[in-house]
Amino acid sequence: MLRTGKHHMDLKILADRERFPETVLRKLGQNPVDFAERMTFIQSSRETSEPCSAAGVLLLLHFRREHPDTVDSPGNFCFQLIKRSASVPQPGDLSCPGGMLHPRLDGLLRPLLTAGIVPALQSYSKSFAGTEDENTRKVVTLFLTNAIRESWEEIRLSPFNIRFLGPLPCHSLVLFRRTIFPLVGLVKKASPYRPNREVERVLEIPLKSFFQAENYAQYLIDMSDSLRREDRDSWQFPCFLHREDGREPEILWGATFHIILRFLEIVFAFRMPDVQSGPVLRRTLHHTYLTGHK
């Protein structure tokens, strides 16, 4: 039987539409930012035989009301994630909206954020003005521009409907030479999304479900011959199960799973429950996992 994960905050705050974003803003603002250091490493790798790439993603928070048409309806915060379509790499995986950095384009668009034309930075800038060095601020705003641009392209998330709450620690992928630069954004108002061909659908996962031990499991990944590495046939990872009425459970694992765990660790001092005694799910990855079904 799984033991419930540990945390040090009253979960009632997840039903507080005003207080929770302010808590996230404060907690992330107190956490070290590694964006500039990681960006320097990526830039230096361009001169090597194995260059690294970079991608900015948005971990989206949204207050989901029980009765959407009622202004004062109670509700709870959820994560908004995308399910990747069969036409892109890592098909079927849950991820944050975002994508590859385009340094020239994102550099040209960045002043729209820093000048306040797109107001996503306003509350963050007021809270942490002068606490970051100029290089860190430049890199954070570059990847925020990158993630907002990609989110508009993928699901038509309006840049004017985002409030930036802070960066999370970078995460390096296992199967790709790529570093993810995660940024937390609050979706201010409910608005219908229009996914492009890269996205199958948008999911909402209540934050409170991450504090329920029965939602965690082990994920045993069998590698096909084309993906096998280091003479290992399989890999085992922790994962999270998201259940919706009328659908098969969605499995959250890999980079997005770890990005969410880091968010919960920073904001709630959360520790994932021990999954060793939990259920084991199995999946085989084929070469199309890296390329999509073209």
Task: Give a description of the structure.
By secondary structure, this protein is of the alpha+beta class. It has a domain of 197 residues: Alpha-Beta Complex (Nucleoside Triphosphate Pyrophosphohydrolase). The strands form two sheets. Strands 1, 2, 3, 4, 5, 6, 7 and 8 form an eight-stranded mixed β-sheet that branches. Strands 11-10-9-12 form a four-stranded mixed β-sheet. Helix 2 packs across helix 5 and helix 3 packs across helix 5. The chain is globular. The relative contact order is 0.20.
Low-pLDDT segments, ≥5 res: none
Q: How much β-strand is present in the residues?
A: 25-35%
Structural class by secondary-structure content: alpha+beta
Question: Distance between the terminal alpha carbons, to the nearest Å?
Answer: 42 Å
Radius of gyration: 19 Å
